[in-house]
Design a protein that fits this description.
The chain contains seven helices and no strands.
């Protein structure tokens, strides 16, 4: 009788019902981090808020289309570092704590930046914060949620494999599929980097007009 192989991307019915939780958890972390960043921004006085937004304004003013290739490289490796760390830490059960911190920190930074601009400059400040993080909002954040959910699933799979000592689980297939998840994220990051490079000048012009 041929044995069934366990596929990481297509879990059994008993585990498929928990798939929503794997996505809900990183979403909740990002929201919690965003709210925390908002709260910290609210507690800061005007002087401290300026210390947050002034470096960003300086960075916006120094943006140059001629440096688009450098921007592409920096943007790619910055986000790849986060995603690779989330991917890799799944292999260490204790690493899930660091994954939680990384996702929370990403949400915190978004909340701090957007709220600081909003409290200091009002509606125009909100627009600056929104457009400053706009490409990441629609590409990077969903990618972080996706990678975190896959990292949680891998950690859960490894933990169950150790506890149950189930030899029927094909670890090689699972690792191969998990590796493909990383390649998928790298492909999306490459597309994102090119989008930033091609349309970056328009975002820069919008930001400079709002400052």
């Amino acid at each position: 009788m041929r044995k069934k192989r366990y596929h990481f991307s297509h879990p059994p019915t008993t585990e498929r019902s928990n798939t929503f939780i794997y996505y809900l958890f990183p979403i909740a972390l990002l929201i919690t981090g965003f709210v925390s960043g908002n709260a910290v921004s609210y507690e800061l006085n005007n002087r401290n808020l300026l210390s947050v937004i002034n470096p960003i304004i300086t960075n916006i003013n120094n943006l140059n289309v001629s440096k688009s290739f450098i921007i592409l490289i920096r943007s790619f490796f910055k986000h790849f570092t986060y995603l690779f760390a989330i991917w890799f830490l799944a292999f260490t059960i204790i690493g899930i704590i660091l994954v939680v911190f990384i996702v929370f920190f990403i949400g915190f930074i978004y909340g701090l930046v957007i709220s600081s601009f909003s409290y200091q400059l009002g509606l125009s400040g909100f627009m600056v914060g929104f457009f400053y993080t706009f490409p990441q909002n629609i590409i990077i954040l969903p990618l972080v949620i996706y990678m975190t959910s896959q990292s949680l699933r891998m950690t859960d799979f490894l933990f169950r494999s150790i506890i149950q000592m189930n030899s029927r689980l094909n670890l090689r297939v699972v690792l191969n599929e998990y590796y493909q998840k990383l390649l998928f994220c790298v492909g999306v990051l490459i597309i994102y980097a090119f989008v930033v490079t091609i349309f970056g000048r328009y975002f820069v012009n919008i930001l400079k007009s709002l400052i």
